[in-house]
Amino acid sequence: MMSQIIDGKKISQEIKDELREKVSELKEQGTEIALAVIQVGEDPASSVYVRNKKRACEYIGIRSVSYEIPETTTQEELLAIIDDCNNDPEINGILVQLPLPEHIDEDTVIKAIAPEKDVDGFHPQSVGAMTIGEPGFLPCTPAGIIQLLKRSDIDIEGKECVIVGRSNIVGKPMALLLLRENGTVTICHSRTKDLREVTKRADILVVAIGKPKFIDASYIKEGAVVIDVGIHRNQENKLCGDVDYESVAPHTSAITPVPGGVGPMTIAMLMNNCVESAGK
Ligand code: NDP
Prior knowledge:
alpha/beta; 10 helices; about 40% helix; globular; binds NADPH dihydro-nicotinamide-adenine-dinucleotide phosphate
């Protein structure tokens, strides 16, 4: 079977170009958008993400206000910065790069962000709004996957959608968004009894396990659409996903590669949320 490779790089570029257009229109009407980007410490992976997010802001025409603060920052100091950003009318969105150092409680920090500036969509109010279908910020990775499917003309309605992984940032919100698109949704996790039996039912399989090349062809129904959220770096510094691409791809009708699949969509959707934040 000829499998379609879902090009996340191309689709994310389309979205960024649409947003760039929108931002320039907003500027003509006198509206500027600013995103506060807060990084605590110097974790190298976080630094790469933060750099890419700032670069995307620059491309789209969003001003990024950078807070690079030391590893030793106390929770109170971080909360004070968030409070300043919450109260600053010139800041539209607030992004705190995770993970945070161990002495800082992530949940407390996430809850401190004003929901109308919560461009990551992690605040309980954003999660609640998504759950009951009210307007609010959607978490970027699952929202990006919905865009990948829609812009690749893959129908979700009535399809068997299986998600492997139930994290708060990927698996759970993914289930809600696929449900909203009228998919029939099943969530699997580490206690699922016969994982293969479930994944083999999937017309659309989303994999967010965090284990390199875990899913091989034996988990796939012939002709399924496979979305690979995982990101891992092997010893040769090459990226791979949670799906064993070489083994799985020939059995799919469409599949996302790693890199160049889901990854670029996350930043595109963050930018989308920043543009939406201008109206709030
Ligand atoms: P988590 O580690 O938070 O969650 C992993 C989930 O997989 C858990 O729900 C766990 O189940 C489940 N799981 C683990 N082992 C198995 C197994 N053997 N069988 C079935 N289920 C299993 O990961 P995240 O959701 O945060 O991330 C997943 C992957 O996606 C990572 O590789 C991460 O780097 C990547 N990622 C990529 C992003 C992108 O932009 N492309 C964004 C976010 C993440 P249980 O709950 O029972 O423990």
